[in-house]
Fold this protein.
Amino acid sequence: MLQAIADGILSGSIIALGAIGLTLTMGILRFANFAHAELVTWGAYMALGVLALTGAFMGPLEPFSFGVPLIMATLVAMVLTAALALAIDWLVYRPLRGRANHLTLVFGSFGVSLLVRMIILLIFGGGAQYYSNTLQIAIPVAPGLRILPDQVFTLGLTAVIVVALHLFLQKTRLGLAMRALAENPELARVNGIDTKVVVRWTWIIGASLAAISGVLYGLTVQLRPEIGFHLLLPLFAAAILGGVGNVFGAVIGGLIVGLAESLSVLVIPAGYKLAVPFMILLLVLYIRPTGIFAGTVGGAK
Amino acid sequence: MTAPLLAVDGVVAGYRPDLPIIHGISLTVAPEEMVTIIGPNGAGKSTLIKAVAGILPISRGTVRLAGKEITNLPTHRMASVSMAYVPQVANVFTTLTINENLKVGATALSKEDAARRIERGYEAFPDLKKFRHKKAGVLSGGQRQMLAVARALLTEPRLLMLDEPSAGLSPLMVSDVFQRLKALVDTGVAILMVEQNAKAALAISHRTYVFAEGRNRIDGPSQEMASNEEVTSIYLGAGGRKR
């Protein structure tokens, strides 16, 4: 039970990071980007690629399984994932925006997600891979509860990112512009906001968070080309549960989905675990379609 | 006559270039002049203002501000040509606080200028200061209009355009808003506004244009327009007084 809760919080925080990016792009760009989950996979593999290319392994930073190279690789992966997101926006979404309806964009994003997944499959192969083969010893923290140091790191990093993003949205001009744009794009332009610039930053931030989420997934689970495919439903469930555009909502939504997934195994066969986010999504849409916290970018109040 | 501040010449515009709503409208606004556009619903009044503000595409004709051509100016660059626009509906960000609304309105300014001018805005609109940390969504219609105007003035525009500033306000609020606009003109701001409330608009503005079916119909000093029979027949008689 305790272990299931800890595992749930862990996978929940990874879902949360991905869902933050999804909720921001959904709130600001106003369409459901099905390719967002593939950005998570892309980020995870880009970090693996950089790690393989640089090769220089400086040894892990005890007690974690990874060292400076993975941190550097993650930073490069964030840049590469942001670049991919901007390229997709420029090549696929930009020509569709304004001319086609939102559903066309959604289907476009479906196509993009398949394409990205296949590219990853072509380059990296379909087998499971790991950033490091170092074996980690789980630390017993309580009777019946063992946690890996990497998992503690994942939780801590998620917390730091959420707080930083909140401060960014509340205190900076760009954050304020993003919240304004999410509510009313035309009024934002009337107020002097160059919405193209803000949209670009939205992609960069969302994609960077997706990359981090992917690396943490690779670190605590494993790397597979289907990461995005498996995260797609949990990400949407978390984002919609928390209210589209609501950063804190996405975090809470992510934790709820993660916990529900891992606790469900106690009652239902593990094979049905993947259906849990789907059930949550259905329930939310049925009972409270705007999410628990009716969403606007940045505001949980 | 002094050189006009705003000169709109033969403008054709609409939501789509192939479906124009206004068909060659011309008008001028002199510095420190208050000009009203009236006309029945669908006359293209709001369309013209939105076209000048760069929100709707202009397919023919020109817009000049202080002699400089600004046709199809990107909307977010309005402040750079000393122009501001207050939309009719949804003219404040309801999910942001009053203070945040003003900060967004000061996007074009440096941070120091923004802080200084927001303070000045609060002096002019003390009601807003009281609610500065409240969400704009809790404000009444009149307070929202005040916030929207205060926001538009942050960039110290020479031309302020308003789309139906009296819409949805109580008669008391209407006269309050109009008094403030009149006071603004006295400080040197030129105003171009669309009004459904023809009586009140004719009473305070210098000149009035009457549009019908996307074209200029008649214009002149507001005082003369109030007694002009053609105006009453086009506008008041055409079932235009919806409110």
